[in-house]
Specification:
about 40% helix; single chain; about 375 residues; TIM Barrel; 15 helices; alpha/beta; 12 strands; globular; 4-stranded antiparallel sheet
Length: about 375
């Protein structure tokens, strides 16, 4: 069975010959191949990354750049971004004011940490709402098909929506502390901004629905340590449910990028009709064992992940890595709704030998 067909079988509710292997090798590739990290994403097929996936034999599913562009015809709105001296800046200008963000490149982690959040108070929320009402989407499916053609049987590209309203605040543009205070002090303002972002995203979704993708991902970086059930019910549940409904009506699937503490979250996602919890990370990095994750998720939610960065990276041992992979693959016996992947991205300091070990380990311990 071809690698991407295994992924397709899992999404379609069937049992493949073995657990699919997917990897996000983008950060490892940039760091270890000394490729400039452009936060705007790839603007064409990155052949070096394609060849790396072919060398490993792992399905490529994300971090391929945007399959659409966002724009506005309103001359009073400006969206500007640029990188200068390792600082990535974004500026949004509307008649209601200007806000800006600064992210600084860190060579060790090969990532951009946020030095200044886009939003500093709820007083700036109307600027975002004004923008969201005017954003439009232009699909770029030729880019999607180019990746498919280059990757061949390793291609299963996820389309992607921007952060949901809650993720826009907490995970991306305001930070945990300020968002928590805003929820406590100005819940109506928070609700209004979340609804504006989500309404914009649903318009983007409608523009994408007839595209060639099979699965769409929302990269909200959910973490139940700070995004409680009360928060989920107030700001997330209805949106995820509606996105899933629209996708399912077209025979497509929804994945949500967790990448944090998944205790509690897996059951909430299943209740919303989400098909796949992506970037789920078990012990020792977070609280749940793989078996407990399956119990909380139920039999139908796809679990994609399994290898914590603390085990995959240079700080872990080969023995711990192998044991972690085996423990994850053991859960296939409880449900075939399973994919083998990193708990998020393959960390830049992961030894190559561990990446290269994965296809053999999955073939040995992940067969049905």
């Amino acid at each position: 069975m071809k690698p991407n067909q295994r992924v397709r079988e899992v999404y379609q509710g069937r049992t493949p010959d073995q657990v699919p292997l997917l990897l996000d090798l983008s950060h490892w590739y940039k760091k270890n191949r000394n490729v400039f990290f452009n936060l705007s994403g790839f603007t064409e097929v990155e052949q070096g990354l394609v060849e790396l996936h072919k060398q490993v034999g792992a399905v490529c599913y994300c971090e391929m750049g945007g399959f659409y562009s966002l724009f506005t015809d309103d001359p009073e709105v400006k969206l500007e971004s640029h990188t200068d001296g390792g600082v990535f800046s974004t500026r949004i200008t509307t008649p209601l004011g200007t806000i800006h963000e600064e992210r600084v490149f860190n060579a060790d982690s090969y990532s951009y940490g946020i030095r200044k959040y886009l939003l500093e108070s709820t007083e700036e929320f109307p600027i975002v709402e004004f923008l969201m009402e005017r954003l439009r989407c232009r699909p770029r499916w030729e880019f999607y098909r180019a990746w498919q053609e280059s990757l061949g049987e390793l291609a299963y590209p996820y389309a992607q929506l921007p952060y949901s309203g809650s993720g826009y605040l907490m995970a991306r543009n305001m930070g945990v502390e300020r968002t928590v205070f805003a929820v406590r002090d100005q819940p109506q303002r928070v609700q209004r901004l979340v609804q504006a972002v989500n309404a914009c995203n649903l318009r983007i979704l409608d523009a994408l629905l007839d595209g060639p993708f099979e699965t769409l991902i929302i990269s909200d970086n959910y973490d139940s340590n700070v995004q409680t059930k009360q928060f989920f019910d107030a700001y997330v549940r209805d949106y995820y449910t509606e996105v899933a409904r629209r996708l399912h009506a077209r025979g497509k699937y929804l994945a949500v990028h967790v990448d944090g503490e998944s205790r509690g979250v897996l059951g909430w996602l299943a209740e919303c009709g989400v098909d796949c919890a992506d970037a789920v990370t078990p012990q020792p990095m977070f609280a749940l064992t793989p078996a407990r994750m399956r119990a909380e998720a139920g039999p139908d939610l796809i679990l994609s992940g399994g290898i914590p960065a603390t085990v995959f990276g240079a700080g872990g041992s080969d023995a711990a890595f192998v044991e972690c992979v085996k423990r994850w693959l053991d859960t296939r016996l409880a449900s075939p709704r399973l994919m083998m992947a990193a708990g998020d991205q393959v960390p830049p300091d992961a030894p190559w030998r561990r990446i290269a070990m994965l296809p053999e380990l999955v073939a040995k311990y992940g067969r049905y």
